[in-house]
Amino acid sequence: MPIYVTVYHLDKTIIGKTEGEVTLTDIEGYLDDIVRAKAVRYRKIFDATSGTSVLSPQDVETLRATLADFTQKRRDVGPFAVITGGNREGRLANICQTATTADRPMRVFSDIHSARRWLNEMMPVP
């Protein structure tokens, strides 16, 4: 799977790291991993610097609906930081922007340090 998920229960953080071509099934698997880990409310870092989207326009619409459903069913979805490196024009980074319609804090960053600082402001480490 091109999205590797690491859950840190102690500081309530999830890091998802993309690699290679990322499909809709991969993103849905990432969401399933979050639910299985009982970590929906955790802070999330999604590192999209090494991934390339192969989502079709129809897949993007399906993803929008999936994310809307995911956040509507859960009132405690934690903040979501996307790391794009210097390439904010990349297709995967643009698709990650889809999450901004969700009712929760989300921002795009060029580096992990800025993302962590923002997450700490949004949801301090317990």
Description:
The chain has 126 residues and is of the alpha/beta class. The protein has a single domain, classed as STAS domain (Transcription Regulator spoIIAA), CATH 3.30.750. The protein is 37% helix and 25% strand. The protein has four helices and seven strands. The strands form two sheets. Strands 1-2-4-6-7 form a five-stranded mixed β-sheet, with helices on both faces. Strand 6 (80-83), helix 3 (91-96) and strand 7 (106-109) form a beta-alpha-beta unit. Helix 1 (24-36) runs parallel beside helix 2. The protein is globular and about 40 Å long. The mean pLDDT is 85.
Q: What is this structure, in a nutshell?
A:
The chain has 126 residues and is α/β, with parallel strands linked by helices. The protein has helices at 24-36, 57-73, 91-96, 112-122; strands spanning 3-8, 13-18, 20-22, 43-47, 51-53, 80-83, 106-109.
The description of the largest β-sheet is: 5 strands, mixed
The chain-level mean pLDDT equals: 85
Number of strands: 7
CATH architecture: 2-Layer Sandwich
| Lateral strand order in the biggest sheet | 1-2-4-6-7
CATH topology: Transcription Regulator spoIIAA
Order of helices and strands: EEEHEEHEHEH
Q: What is the highest CATH level, the class?
A: Alpha Beta
Q: C-alpha Rg, in Å?
A: 13 Å
Shape: globular
Helix content: 25-40%
Indicate how many domains the architecture comprises. Answer: 1
- Structure class: alpha/beta
**CATH H-level superfamily title:** STAS domain
Ends distance: 31 Å
What kind of oligomer do you see?
Answer: single chain
Q: How much strand content do the residues show?
A: 15-25%
